[in-house]
Amino acid sequence: MRRDELYLVDMIEAAAAATTFVQDVDEAAFLASDLIQSAVLQKLLVIGEAAGRVSPEIRDRWPDVPWRSVTGFRNIAVHAYFEVDWSIVWRIATTALRELQEQLATLLKAEFPLVASQLDQPH
Fold first, then answer.
1. 61: part of which helix (H) or strand (E)?
2. CA 117/CA 56 separation, integer angstroms
């Protein structure tokens, strides 16, 4: 079984990627682009899947991280894919992900400082 810190890194990296995908587009361009929509949704699914695998101990120690919302979105997107509200996906990608990334970075630094320091290093 993978360790919590690996799931947290997956979440942080996926959030960063999704944020980058929408960085230079407006909502209209996002809604018109199947490519960008698919890319962002895939990263949101990674975030939701990884969040669901983080141990209950970590989730309990960090109740301000929206674990249930993140995993809930993933479940809805996977099971009701043809009903995805792309305006909600846009809002998540352009607002909620930044805050989530900050929360996860704080968590990673507190719980796994060595991993957090490696994440800050250029590849």
1. helix 56-61
2. 24
